[in-house]
Amino acid sequence: MSERYDNGMKIRRSVLGDAHVDRAEAAKTAFDEPFQSFITEGAWGTVWASDKLTRRERSMITLALLAALGQWDEVAMHVRASANTGATPEDIREAMMHVAVYAGVPAANHALKIIKKTYSEMGVEI
């Protein structure tokens, strides 16, 4: 594996947690291994590895984009990851306000429902 892959895996584990990454790695097959390597190098080893934004900022941007695109499972995953990135519930609420204005109230409203449920499951009072 490349240095970018190794760095990406470290960042991926730091943001998403070892348990999540271990489950993803255990589910990996020869069919999707190239895709998994691609996202580890590209998303985690390049985009998330850049020092131009903080992990908190990346977390907020990621959640806004996922909500705008209706990627609900990923919204929940990245809310859980926010415990590792420093993005607070207030930060995420503000990101959803942007989603409402720029991508639509229904998308933000549904994301907020998922965010509240995820925080409840995490034992985070909001």
UniProtKB/TrEMBL annotation:
What region holds the Carboxymuconolactone decarboxylase-like domain? 35-116
Give the UniProt keywords, A-Z: Lyase
| Superkingdom assignment | Bacteria
- Identify the InterPro entries for this entry: 4CMD/NDH-1_regulator, AhpD-like, CMD-like, Decarb_PcaC
Output the Pfam families linked to this UniProt entry: CMD
Q: Which SUPFAM superfamilies match?
A: AhpD-like (SSF69118)
Question: What GO molecular-function term can you cite, just one?
Answer: 4-carboxymuconolactone decarboxylase activity
Q: What is its EC number?
A: 4.1.1.44
| Annotated protein name in UniProt | 4-carboxymuconolactone decarboxylase
Gene name in the database record: pcaC
